[in-house]
Amino acid sequence: MEEPVVKIAEAKTHEILADLLKVDVLQEALVNLLEVNPTDKDSTRLMTVCADLQRVFSESSETPGTNAGSDAQKGTEAAKTQGNTTNEAAARIQEAGVRAIVSVLSCQNNCYRAHFLASILLNLVNTNAVSPKVVCICLLADENLKTDHDIFWLMAFGLIKKIISGVDYKGVREIMKMCLDRARQLPTNLRRSQLHLVEALLGVMSLIFDRNASLLPGYFIVNELLKLYPDYKNWPHWSMSSLLTDFIDKFRRAAQMLSIVGRPKLRPIVEHSGQNSPSINSWKLDSLTLKFQLKGALPYSPELLEAQPGLLRYILKQPYSREMVYAVIDIQKKKQRCNALEEQLVELMVSALDDFSRSDALTGGAASASPSSGTAVATPDHHLCTCTHLSSLLIHFVLFQLISFPCLVMGLHAKLESKGSNRGRDHLMWVLLQFLSGSIQKNPFSDFLPILRLIEVLYPENEPLPIPDYTDSRCALQMSAMCILMHILKKAQTDNIKTPRMLPPVFKNHNEFLQSLAHNPQLPLMTAGATPDYRIALLVNAYSTNQEYFQRPILTLSESIQGNQKSTVPMPGINCVALGSTTPLSMTLLDSLTVHVKMSLIHNIGQHINKQAQHKSGVALAPALIETYARLLVYTEIESIGIKTFITNILPLVFKSHVWSLLHALLEMFIYRIHHSPPQYRVQLLSTLHHLAAVPLNTMTQMTQLHLCMESVALRLITGLGNSEVMPSLTRFFSPDTKPNLISTDSEELNRVLVLTMARAMHVTGKECCDTTGESARWCVDFLKVVMTHTPHTWANHTIQCFPPVIADFYHQYAAPRENMQTLKKAVEEEYRKWMSMSNETDIIAHFSLQHNTSPLFLCLLFKMVLDNDRVPPIAYKVLERVGPRQLAAHVRTLCDFLVLEFSNSAGGQHVTKYVETMNAIIWVYNIVPIDRLMLCLALRTQEGSEAHVCFFIIQLLLLKPCELRNRVQEFVKENSPDHWRQSNWYDKHMAFHRKFPEKFSPESILAEQGTLTAQYQTLPIYCSNVCLRFLPVLDIIIHRFLELHQVHKNLETILERLGMLYKFHDRPITYLYNTFHYYENKLRERPNLKRRLVVAVIMSQQEIHPQGWALTEAYHQYLARPPDDIAWNPDLSYYTSLVRRLVHTMQGKAVFPSIEWRFNEFSSSGAHALHVSCVELMALPSNPTIVANMLMDVLLRGYCDIPTGEMIEWVNAVGLILTWLPEPYWIVVHDRIIDLLQHPTLATPGVGTLDPFSMLNLEQLESCLSDMNAALTLAIAHAFWHHASFGQVGRIPQLLRERIRPILTTEEQLVVVCHLVGPFLQRFNNESARKVFDVTKELYEALAKVDHSVTELKYMDPICDVFYHIKYMFTGDSIKTDVEGIIRSLRPALQRRLRFITHLNLDSIENPSNNAPGSTTPAHTASTAPSSTPTNATSNTGTVNNTSNNTATASVPGSNVNQTGSTGSAGSVLGTPASSLGSLSGMGSSLGQTSSVGSGVSGSGGMSMGSIAAASSLASLLQDTSPINSSIS
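The chain above was modelled as a monomer; its predicted structure follows.
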């Protein structure tokens, strides 16, 4: 029913206009030639026409609702629905009416009639009869709006300019886009007579772009422009290019405030678990374009908008970077091809070839080179992207279908063919061989044809290549191309495909050599001490897909390490033997094998272990097999069949078979030999170990040894978790509602260590700085509750003081009860009397073996027995056997408390010595409690005050006074090396140590000696461990406990002096020292001697196995060589400069550190190593943290002139990285420097500086003109710091703004700096914690208000307001509207106008402060009085913002578009009364009378006087009476 009504309204409108415009023939012919002044009759006719039109609109809009009365009682919802329908119908009717008027207007060739029709539209808008938006849209959408209809063009844009201020901002945006489309119609070559058309359009666009008019947020405009014209080309018309370009350029300041300084050149440190990097969100790239994921379409610098392939290649180049690659380009193993990743891998391979060729030139083909590294062991080019790493990336990405192997090879072919170089070709063939050898059997032959074309390009020689020297490991590289051809030929033969090409003559000698090896019945293996021989490696590499020739050599390799039953060798312990092979396969040989061969070898080892588990053989695995298996597990390219299979298949199978010797061997191998395993596997193993607690170990004869091993492995797994790994691993495997996997149900010590590890990780990663009521804090409390449920415990106050606030608060609230010491003493005395009085062996065993359920005191009784009698009765071992190793832990805890009690009450001197001798006998003579287990328990007991001092005193005495532990440590350190991967005789040295210091595991070993065991006792095989290695993680914990109590620091120095040499075997010495200095910074700050002693103990003990310069700088070595009391060292700026330069050069890929085997190093890359050793050295300096941090920043702020050209951002990146990884007392100096910058007179005092703040902070611009860069560099350092920072560090920004910055803000320049500081990190806040975005935004509004009230003039309010709009539309939306509305209302009117769209303020409320209160109602439209027939709700049809729009249309806005756009209307009102509105439209046609030809083509100037046409004046009176048109245009 609505469509007919619309048509009727449209028809009636046409009728009214037709009647209005009807004139006779004479009037039609002469009206353009006359100048007639307007009369009152014209105004009356105008009002009559408008009233008629309003009546038409009103009556038509009421028609659809005529039947609504009968339905009035259907309820409120029906009424609302009917009302909405009525409003929609009214809107369509009004639009149809306006469209009818516009259609008539567009056909007018008479400028006076066009004026009158335009006046009608203006009057209808002015009286709220129609929406100004509808009028504007209809005008712009009319098909006659063309440049050849100049009258309509000028009238349309003139009218739009008059009424657009009444349109809501969404409508203005639509109008702007339509104007841009119309601009395309302008002719490219403009005539002078057409300039007025351009001016009319530019007038509207200029008004829309006018910031003072505030018709539309400029943020919307620039977004639209950059979406339509992203490359600043193809503007709609050249005449508009200046306007559009200038407007976009004004937003460059806002874009600068939202950009990180030098972001394209910033680089991260890649760690083992890159996805857990604390700042991973900072590095994300679009997976298709490799561009930064910037928010909003703003004119960012070209460098920010470009693709960032260099960043992805840098990450790809680092070892163990796969997980970080996934996180950065956010592909998450979707098995969807990523072209960008494929392209960058090609680029990486091509660039690596140049590195490989330079390495070959340096080494001259030395035999020490390894095909896996592509470099000699001694060459300094250890940083190169190795062949092994490239192979691992290639295999992994192709396996997950992220790249296409044929496409990658074709990409390499194209690159290398155009390059015209074949340098490093053998290395490339080796990389491709790794993938091909393992996949060619499963993929079609066509996938590998591109390799043949690549070989033709890289090997163009016509003469045969010489046979390589098979005593050099490089022979595997040199033969790799021939091996590829052998696999392809075999594939073609298998698939019955005729090969398209014959074997190239260049490989003739290689082919003949391989054929001779295949038919050689005897293949020599590499043996220790003999000349290397890699012929077996060449054979298996070439024939791994040909079972006819492959089985014999691979079985030879497998049997060489597996041994056989005919030959056995002894193992440490009692009645323990292993298969006789003791020499593992060397790393150089393993590196010379392809991935397919390694997979076959590791598969054979796995099958052998499974057979041993099924047969439950009493002969242990060969030592050579264990060592070789461990070496194979380091290869990341075979991770799925290597470490993953080991954790998920082999270990569970061995455990299920209850072959404890195998389980013991595999656990030892994993914990002492595997250096870089993904954290999920380590946490999964920890969970498995906790599940083993359900196994009844009392049924085993080796229960004590196995339990000791599992506890030691669990301890190493927990303490070995990296700081960025702890929380992700715990949250992944732990849920309060499920059975705990990572929490021990019975070991208080392991749970305590887990709490300490979590506290350390929270502190180092900055999570302790976060809100203690957030989600992570709640999770932490839930975790601790579960821990307390299983193992209730407390901590000493000196320990709690070091905890993060969340953990400290928890333990203050959930304190577990402690046992009374006097009660303990009485209980021990009572039980000892029972022991002395009981004589029945069965009763004794039954009574004392069940004590752990009530009062675990048996070890206290043993202490008194040995103290009184110097012996342990045989029956005591039977009690211990019945107690079992798990329950014995409770007895050990009680013993520790009892020892503290006894030592506290001793008379000193002789008594103390006797106590020490007694405990020494219990540990070393009677083997009742291992030293590592006792020390761990002592160190973790909760002791306060003097009792804590006594406890630490006992630890020191038991460690140092007896010689047993010291002798073992000295012997082990002297005779052994931790570089197990380089050794072929580890077994011999291992056995020698155990023969000299045999270990017994009580009570089984003692009962076996007494002959009381029912079965033959056999210790579990020990392949790697000994008491020294088991004690090392305990020593780590002891040192930390001593650091917590400053009164025992001197005692700690003594322990370090005597036992510090053991750190030669620490698998993570730098990491341990870094964590220690970081976590206990406040404890060590005033203890420079202790810091130096820690450095000597941990780092200097490694100097025998590492070359000079591997960690510390020469300057620090000189400091260590000083006398102990000489600690007065304050390094100058050159020291800090050299330290930063070392990190910069390392990240650039230069050879700074000596050659390091990263696969077995604690760090996976030179960058991570350089960063950690630099931080350790800085924290170890005898200087205050504030001094150190300031000197670091002064490397740039004072020494920027000495930094090489083009490297400034790289140095900024290095300083930011170092500060990020230092404790809070260091990095808080960044906040101090920010405050200093804001208080600098240039910013704090208006008019002092010569540069505006945007230029002052533009580092690139200042660097090019050699200007003072202190302010820009301070900003750059802050950006680099926060870019690398953990969320705990960057999360301090709101507090910095609230507590330190806001109180000192007084100038607009300061506010600009603040926006520069925090603007770029809103996106990171949005990704990690939306609440932080709200906090920062509210602080920025508060800062704006403070500055607004402090200054009289604002020069930069446009870019500042642009930033606020960016925040609203990209991050906050209306979430904080209520919080900031009051602030915006308190600002000066100019700011309110610019920010009015954030809180939907209207211009009237801005200009009338009395209405400027939240919740005040919008005043009614007062420009004119509408006829009574006009519906009062007519304006509601334009949407939700029409009230604002209409008031905007009538408001008096000083300085707005009313007086700035060339309007001839009254300055007091945009739209006057109906009478004056006719006159106000006259300005729309002023240019028409001056520049265009109208009607008969006669043109005039000024008021259109006709000159020579005298006859026209005689008809003036007639036309004046009959014409309804106001003909005055002057």
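The first strand starts at residue 369 and ends at 370.
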